[in-house]
Amino acid sequence: SQTIHQWPATLVQPVGSPLSLECTVEGTSNPNLYWYRQAAGRGLQLLFYSVGIGQISSEVPQNLSASRPQDRQFILSSKKLLLSDSGFYLCAWGSGNTIYFGEGSWLTVV
Amino acid sequence: QKEVEQDPGPLSVPEGAIVSLNCTYSNSAFQYFMWYRQYSRKGPELLMYTYSSGNKEDGRFTAQVDKSSKYISLFIRDSQPSDSATYLCAMKWSSGGYQKVTFGTGTKLQVIP
């Protein structure tokens, strides 16, 4: 069966520091991969999605970036965090009719 | 107008009640319809998905889609305190060869013992 791993689960970072969140999927090949951010009362916001290695599409312009160095690995990065980057970040993979989420990463920028 | 509208609640019901959760949408391109359950500080968990109008049942859960009215529902029978969570509707569609998913903002449900 397919599983998705996401880490770290929680992190507190100072403003201006870099960020790296990592996600890996097991049990499937060539999945569509997604990064979402969830802010209180605002639902899930799609940040990036990828249909293959090195293929990244950005939905929302901001100081975040994503990379897919391997088929089942998806990384969310920032060079300099802003206070507004705080939130719950979710990696997901897509298969046919639906998508499945990881457990998420809570980011607090202080 | 948002593509997907969902009442944020909160919705409080007594244990054993039938719960009805609803979403409306405006994009006729939506092809697949999903419901997720999200517990506090956890990732959303897929409950059900369907692609056609009509009902789909899985245990205590029934998903209903009415494409003509652009309206979907999730019914929970014999609700339990463990059903207390936020429920998200989601709709999947194709755009430019890519599969995209649009979510509602979620309805917070509390089942009171």
Provide a descriptive summary of the structure in words.
The complex is a heterodimer of chains A (110) and B (113). By secondary structure, chain A is an all-beta fold. In chain A, 0% of the residues lie in helices and 64% in strands. Chain A is built from no helices and eleven strands. In chain A, the strands form two sheets. In chain A, strands 2, 4, 5, 6, 9, 10 and 11 form a seven-stranded mixed β-sheet that branches. Chain A is globular, with a radius of gyration of 13 Å. The mean pLDDT of chain A is 91. Chain B is mainly beta and 113 residues long. Helix content of chain B is 0%, strand content 59%. Chain B has no helices and eleven strands. In chain B, strands 2, 4, 5, 9, 10 and 11 form a six-stranded mixed β-sheet that branches. A five-stranded antiparallel β-sheet of chain B has the order 1-3-8-7-6, with no helix packed on it. In chain B, strand 6 and strand 7 (61-66) form a beta hairpin. The model of chain B has no long low-confidence stretch (mean pLDDT 92). Chain A binds chain B through residues 6, 32, 34, 41-44, 46, 49, 51, 57, 88, 90, 94, 97-104, 106, and chain B through 8, 32, 34, 36, 41-46, 49, 51, 88, 90, 92, 98-101, 103-106.
Quick synopsis:
The complex is a heterodimer of chains A (110) and B (113). Chain A has strands at 3-7, 10-13, 19-26, 32-39, 43-52, 55-58, 64-70, 73-78, 87-95, 98-101, 105-109.
The oligomeric state of the chains shown is heterodimer
- Helix count of chain B, per DSSP? 0
Give the largest interface. Answer: A-B, 23 and 23 residues
What is the H-and-E element order of chain A? EEEEEEEEEEE
